[in-house]
Structure formats: structure tokens, C-alpha cells
């Protein structure tokens, strides 16, 4: 039995933190040396409490570190019975600290997670800085999430996420109409993140390639987007050798979904962005089978696909002045009598012949076909994202994605990731890595020909680079670690699917729409 959950409702209120009709109010607290200080939006609450808010928080053990949440009963001093003070860290951030927008985004998320079981929460974290509004709303909305669809009964101790998040506009100096525009944008983006997270968290027996393709097509059509689905027969007719090689080891055949967005106004020259996402709905490793430990997390190997498809639904709602087309290959990598083998030579879409040395390097096989297909539509920019290599985690950890490709686009992607709180770091594609994948019998091997794992993340990028046409700005984003949180929740990030790098993809599209 599944148990559906709904997104939190986002609203704006002209009320202030003292008189808002909410069940709890969130304010911020800084740490200045040895002293606590009030964050923006907390002054009115402090006055209502007789100027004793900091004293009470200190007695309760608050120290103002980023993400700490301390709850205080107002005993009738404010309409809300509870004030939740969330730590914002030092007023002047230290080197290595998140930039202010991400700090507030995480703080709002931490507060909303601490208030599970609360029906209606008011946010009074900022005052006159309009640039922080979106970050606070995003963090709060992203944190109001859990995935309990497969629980037959919820335990007595279960407390659902916050149901309504109210942005309190009283001290911001911004009108409700202006703020409603921010709310609408945040809702489009966070609804898309929620859709991606739900797909990624779904058990792999309920999201095999044909089912995933059908659900993707349905979501895209509902958003008013053009959709084309190539099933296994169509892939065979079209010569998609990479997708077929990986997917024919499964009884659930591979698919390729193409989703297209056109700007709302006709005429003019619009840039064209291709988005590509890896859709391995479950990865056993194939004949080169993975160890059993943690294999269950390989349901998340379609995180790139989920984020690309869901991003398209947000793009349809936001209507940027740029053409965007998504190409999403989907397959299940299984060992069977029909699975591809080490030693096979696969003829890819477009004719490149690839010598297979490891069937667990399957993502690059399906992505190469998708990149070659995308190239036929002459994009100006090509951005691909995938849980491609364990080398990304070794190199950059579990929260920073690796990005490779064209120098100029890499910097734009890195900047977009920094602004959205999805950090990325540019990585090189050295000639020696590329030449290490020369095959003695085919055009290229899909891993180092000598099985050298040095620079493993770079090998994946180097392989994909061979399928990108000259003159196309491109970026490959490896999200192996950041896409799926196997540890405890933090900030606005739940355990399980995170939705990285969906917000970066939207930011890149917006940037290209604005600057070309």
C-alpha cells in the first residue's frame, strides 16, 4: 500500500511576527564572539517578550551556531505559542562558511525540520534584504518533505512535515503582490525538486524503464511540453546501440524520452539548450556485478534523469526565453543471458564503436547515445548530469559535484551551483586520460584500457567528450555523492534523494536566457 504526501502550502502574509495567525514563528540568532545577537526579523518578537529573548535562549543553552534550533514558549506574548530561534552563525562569515543566501536557506530548512508536527509556521528570518526572500522560502519548502508512501501504518511517534509555510512580509518593505511572485517561482522549483525526489526514492521494482518513461511523459504533457518516447523496438530501429547494450539484460526494456520546451513568444533568435540525464533505474553492475553491500541504493542511479525531467516541468512554468530540449535514456542494468559482456564491441548511435571492458561503466554508454542524438538538434549548449562514478565521491566528497567540459560553461555552471546551494568544482580532462582509453580493436574503450582507476571520474568525462560535436559548449556534472544522502538529514536536505542538481539546471537555463 502506498501513502501519498503533499507539498507544503506557501503563502504570504502582511502580518508581523508578533500578531501572525500561525502555530510557530521562526526568527534568527547570530553568534558575535561570546555573545548572542538578534538576527533580522527577531526584534519585534524580542520586544514582545520584554527584551528577554536572548537571555532566555542563553539559559536554554543556545549558542547561535548555524542550523541550531531552540524553541521558546511565548506564553501569550505573541499570537504564535512558540518561537523557534535558528542559529545563523557569526554576523561576519568565516572563510569556508556558506555564503549568506545558502546560510539562510539552510537555516530556514533546519527550523522547518525541527517543527515537524506543526501545522502552520511563519518565517520572520529577514527584513529589508529582498535577495534573501527566495533563499528562505526555498529552504523552508525543501525541508517540508518526507517519503512514507510505502509504510502500511505510521508509528504513533510519527509527526508529519509542516503543512503551511507563511512568509511574514511586515518588516520587509515589500508588498504582498511582489512577494507573491517570489512564492510562485519557489513553488515551481520546489515542486519539481519534490517530483524528482519522489522518483528517486521509489523502490526499483515500481520504477522500471517503461514505467519511468510513462510517468515522465505524463508529467511533461501535463506541463504543456512536447514529448516523444522511443521504446525498445524504436531504439533498435534507430540504432541506439549503447542504450540497447545496457538495457537488453533486463526483462523491462530500455527507453529514450525526449521532452521539448519552446519560448512563449514566436520570432527572434533563441539559444537552444540540451539537457541530458542518466536514467539507470537500477544498477546491479551487470555481468561485472557490484558487491551486495549498499546495492539497494542503486535505485538512485536514475537521479540525473529524474532531475532533468522534473526541471523541464519547472521550466515550463517559469517560461524563460530560451529553447530547452531534454534527452533522457532509461535502462535497467541486469545480469542475464541477454546482457552485454566485457569484451563486446558495441556500435553506438552515430557509428562509434566502443570496446566494453566493464559492464558497470554503463551510464556512459547510454549517455553517449543520448548526446549523439541531442547533437542532431544543433544545441548551442549541452548540459548532462549523472551519477557516473564513485571517483567523484573520492575526489570531492558527498556534497560537491564534479563538473567537466568547456571552460566558459564550466564557470557558469560552477557559479549557478554556488548561487543555488549545490556546490560544484571544475575538473580537468587531460590528454593522457583520453589517450588511456584508446582501444586496440575498436574506436575507444569505455574505461582505461589498462584498467587503471587513477582519475576514474575524469575517464567518464573524457569518454563522453568524444560524442560532443565541435563548437558546442558542454558540461558534464557528476553527482554520484550529492544526489543521494545516505546519512542524517541536514539543513533542507532529507535523507535519501536530494534533488541535486535540479536547481542548478534551472539557474543555468535562466542565465542563458538572460545573457545568451
UniProtKB/TrEMBL annotation:
KW Hydrolase (keyword) present: yes
Keyword Manganese: yes
Reactions this protein catalyses: Release of an N-terminal amino acid, preferentially leucine, but not glutamic or aspartic acids; Release of an N-terminal amino acid, Xaa-|-Yaa-, in which Xaa is preferably Leu, but may be other amino acids including Pro although not Arg or Lys, and Yaa may be Pro. Amino acid amides and methyl esters are also readily hydrolyzed, but rates on arylamides are exceedingly low
Gene Ontology MF terms: aminopeptidase activity
Active site, UniProt feature: 290, 364
Positions with a binding annotation for Mn(2+) 1: 283, 360, 362
Subcellular location: Cytoplasm
Record-annotated Cytosol aminopeptidase domain positions: 358-365
Cofactor section: Mn(2+)
PROSITE patterns per UniProt: CYTOSOL_AP
Domain of life from the UniProt record: Bacteria
EC number(s) recorded for this UniProt protein: 3.4.11.1, 3.4.11.10
Alphabetized SUPFAM superfamilies for the sequence: Macro domain-like, Zn-dependent exopeptidases
List of residues binding Mn(2+) 2: 278, 283, 301, 362
Keywords: Aminopeptidase, Cytoplasm, Hydrolase, Manganese, Metal-binding, Protease
Alphabetized Gene3D superfamilies for the sequence: Leucine Aminopeptidase, subunit E, domain 1, Zn peptidases
Cofactor note: Binds 2 manganese ions per subunit.
Pfam families: Peptidase_M17, Peptidase_M17_N
Primary role: Presumably involved in the processing and regular turnover of intracellular proteins. Catalyzes the removal of unsubstituted N-terminal amino acids from various peptides.
NCBIfam families: PRK00913.1-2
Similarity annotation: Belongs to the peptidase M17 family.
Protein name: Probable cytosol aminopeptidase
